[in-house]
Design brief:
The chain is an alpha+beta fold. The protein contains 19 helices and 24 strands. It has 4 domains: 108 residues, Single Sheet (N-terminal domain of TfIIb), CATH 2.20.25; 58 residues, no CATH class; 186 residues, Dimethylsulfoxide Reductase, domain 2, CATH 3.40.228; 112 residues, no CATH class. Helix 10 crosses helix 16 and helix 10 packs parallel to helix 18. Bound molecules: iron/sulfur cluster. The site of iron/sulfur cluster has 14 residues, from helix 2.
């Protein structure tokens, strides 16, 4: 018999169990509990202190199947039965705590009301129990009949992010064998707007920081979330920030919740007015120059130029190693017909020869020589002008020589300007932002949101003077029809303050369910992950 050798962190010494036994015991646990992180079992132990002293069993480490805090659990198993569940004190996120939901997780396995057999609707609103084999036969016959008559896409398969990776893999496998890509789980209706907002903003549609990192915040802004009740153990990191850093807690929620009850400032805005509220705060920050100017210049696109349609003018250059030539293309469809004209002198006073590059919307290849020319315009010491012209040679923009390089992207960059200079140039992203939020005066925001103007001003000042600020949000934000734009407004606020990419800052999307990521990675959606 093949032996499986393993070791847990909580129990000293090596031990051996057979693979068959391991799977059997593991199976008993997975029967009811999401054990996506089960790391193995140790010897039988008797619990001597804490909750339920005297309980005896082998300990399995797992993760709570409920919310996305993902609290670590220790599951005691005796005679193939789960006899006790408690928080895993070695887990860095919950440090031994479980909320009432986690503490009741054993009921997922043994509650008398658990549905354990298939039932069939009788037609008069009642259900009758049927045998498993009959259920399998009837379901497969009906699915086959639908596929024959209407095709496989007439059926959709809906999985579950409470389930384990293994279960989710099987659900998508059935769907794909059946012949359809109509596969879903909760991720789509839960935080789809988070992905739509954070992925284009930061490259990744997930919380930017970590639960544990919340303790580093000096201000916690909670909007669209009742974290105290819905992610209870996660809230311990907010209270730790308050205890250790005297962090301010600011809550915006149309409903007075237990989370609101814990706040220093509570803003009861009207439902659907979140963007106005955030814009009002952003306006206060800009008016009072509370933004992080260096951060804006170096880490955001605020100094970049916009075209007539308000789209970023962006030129991308990427090497094509196979033919050793370089490809240059416009960054977006809107830049289809722009030209770039460069004149001036380099740092040695030598004339940069006149050159004009047309971007006709198609990729075209520049020779190596021309690339060396392009490299001159990235020289910030060069003087002269870079003009951006439209199809009719009309100037869209004029910028100083010195095109800033970000990775392989040569943006039409306004140069090293102060925020005031950016604001004065009507073509910069920053001036556009100022223009967009200019109507959101405290008085106007009070009218829209119902939040007193003094509270809006006070909130903006607290954000500015208690950095880093972290933003926590969940489904109160994501499930609005304009949820993507809500989150984009949080992005603007946090970037203005320089709160992204630092400990204690960030925008933290609190998921609803424990295994959203695993279910998605297992292919429980219309696309397969790259590493599938
Ligand atoms: S906070 Fe969430 S993960 Fe932790 S025990 Fe409660 S429901 Fe489970």
């Amino acid at each position: 018999m093949e032996k499986l050798k393993t070791k847990t962190e909580s129990i000293e010494g090596d031990f051996e169990i057979t693979r068959r036994n391991f799977l059997k015991i593991g199976g008993a646990v997975t029967a009811g509990i999401a054990v996506s992180n089960t790391v193995g079992a140790g010897e039988t132990k008797t619990k001597e202190s804490g909750t339920s002293p005297g309980i005896e069993g082998k300990i399995f480490h797992s993760v709570c199947p409920y919310c996305a805090v993902g609290c670590g659990m220790k599951i005691y198993v005796k005679d193939n039965k789960v006899v006790h569940i408690e928080g895993d004190e070695e887990n860095p996120i919950n440090r031994g705590s479980l909320c009432s939901k986690g503490n009741a997780a054993i009921q997922q396995i043994y509650n008398d009301f658990r549905v354990k057999e298939p039932s069939k609707k009788t037609g008069n609103g009642h259900w009758e129990k049927i045998l498993w084999n009959d259920a399998y036969n009837e379901i497969s016959e009906k699915l086959k009949a639908i596929r024959t008559k209407y095709g496989p896409d007439a059926v959709g398969f809906y999985g579950c992010s409470h389930a384990t990776n293994e279960e989710d893999y099987l659900i998508q496998k059935i769907a794909r064998i059946f012949g359809t890509n109509n596969i879903e789980h909760q991720a789509r209706k839960c935080h789809a707007s988070t992905v739509g907002a954070l992925a284009p903003s930061f490259g990744r549609g997930a919380m930017t920081n970590h639960w544990v990192d919340i303790k580093n915040a000096k201000c916690v802004f909670i909007i669209g979330s009742n974290i105290v009740e819905n992610h209870p153990v996660g809230f311990q990191w907010v209270t730790e920030a308050r205890e250790k850093n005297e962090a301010k807690i600011i809550v915006a929620d149309p409903r007075y919740t237990k989370t609101a009850n814990m706040s220093d400032i509570y803003m009861q805005h009207r439902p659907g007015t979140d963007i106005a509220l955030i814009n009002g705060i952003c306006k206060e920050i800009i008016e009072n120059k509370w933004y992080d100017e260096i951060y804006l210049m170096n880490r955001t696109n605020t100094p970049f130029l916009l075209n007539n349609e308000g789209k970023l003018i962006e030129i991308k250059i990427s090497a094509l190693p196979e033919n050793k030539k370089l490809k240059i293309r416009s960054g977006s469809d809107n830049d289809k017909a722009i030209k770039i004209k460069i004149t001036g002198k380099d740092e040695n006073g030598k004339d940069i020869p006149f050159e004009e590059i047309s971007l006709d919307g198609k990729n075209f290849v520049l020779s190596k020589n021309k690339f060396s020319f392009v490299s001159k315009i990235e020289n910030e010491k060069a003087s002269g002008e870079v003009e951006i012209l439209d199809e009719q040679d009309k100037e869209i923009s004029k910028i100083p020589a010195g095109v800033k390089v970000y990775g392989d992207c040569y943006g039409a960059y306004a140069g090293v300007w102060t925020a005031e200079e950016m604001k004065a140039n009507k073509d910069t992203v920053f001036s556009k932002l100022v223009e967009v939020i200019s109507p959101y005066t405290p008085e106007e925001v009070e009218k829209i949101t119902g939040v007193e103007k003094e509270t809006i001003k006070q909130t903006a000042e607290i954000f500015a003077k208690n950095k880093p600020v972290t933003i926590l949000y969940s489904m109160g934000t994501t499930q609005h029809t304009t949820g993507v734009q809500y989150i984009r407004s949080y992005v603007v606020l946090q970037l203005l303050l320089g709160n992204i990419g630092i400990p204690g800052g960030g925008i933290n999307a609190m998921r609803g369910i424990s295994n959203v990521q695993g279910a998605t990675d297992m292919g429980l959606c219309h696309i397969l992950p790259a590493n599938f």
